[in-house]
Amino acid sequence: MVKELFKACPEKEREQRMITNEFDRQVENLIQKGYPSIAGLNEVEFRSQLQPLKTKTIEFEKNEEDREGFIPYVIVIKSEWVDGEKAMQLVERKNQKGFSVMDADDIQRFKPIEGIELPNGIAYLAMDIDTGTETRNVTPNEALKTIVNDNRSPLTLEEGIAVITHNPDILMKNSGFSLLGSRCGDRRVTALWISAGKPKLGWCWAGNPHTWLGSASCSSRVGM
Predict the structure, then answer these.
(1) pTM listed for this prediction
(2) Which of 1, 39, 132, 197 could connect to 81 by a Cys-Cys bridge, CB 3.0–4.6 Å?
(3) Strand partners, 190
(4) pLDDT tens digit sequence for 35-91
(5) 8 Å CB contact between 112 and 184
(6) CA angle at 114 for the pair 157 and 46, rounded to the nearest 5°
(7) Distance between CA atoms of 138 and 136, rounded to whole angstroms?
(8) Which H or E element spans position 195?
């Protein structure tokens, strides 16, 4: 009976139901990883903080769902509440914990570049994410021009970690992505890839291309 009712639902309603369920999955994922206590909240308070974002996912119409490297949205917990070093340690892929070659102070030096304004609040949604398969073997400097010309925005360091927190299998051997939306004033850009079977946060030079790194972007950021 339930199956018959689901089949009877209009296509758009089925899409919205799936997206809403995805929101709940991501919230549970964060809770299981201990995000509430790290942020100084109990579970009820944490859920309450994120709940206003749920209606934003219902309004989102997903598209290009079959495109390689595409994710409809991710919940991003801002670094003021859970810093990048800790968030990376909580990433898990195939029973392997994430790690960083950068220390906490170095990670904190990377801030959103000019033109990126993060929504207010503890968390927000990064929408319509593309991990940049079409910008592999393109320098980050040139990839940024393409992203901007396409009216998209490069992912920040925290947004990249959020992507692999909720979708760890998006990272594969010889297939990672750079995070051009955060810089610290030097020639480095941070990136995520698999190293020794583990999710790794590292950096590369902005002027160097890599066949195994794309440059990730989103279409928008949606707050409370």
Answers:
(1) 0.88
(2) 39
(3) 179, 203
(4) 999 999 999 999 999 999 999 887 664 544 556 778 999 999 999 999 999 999 999
(5) no
(6) 45
(7) 5
(8) strand 188-195
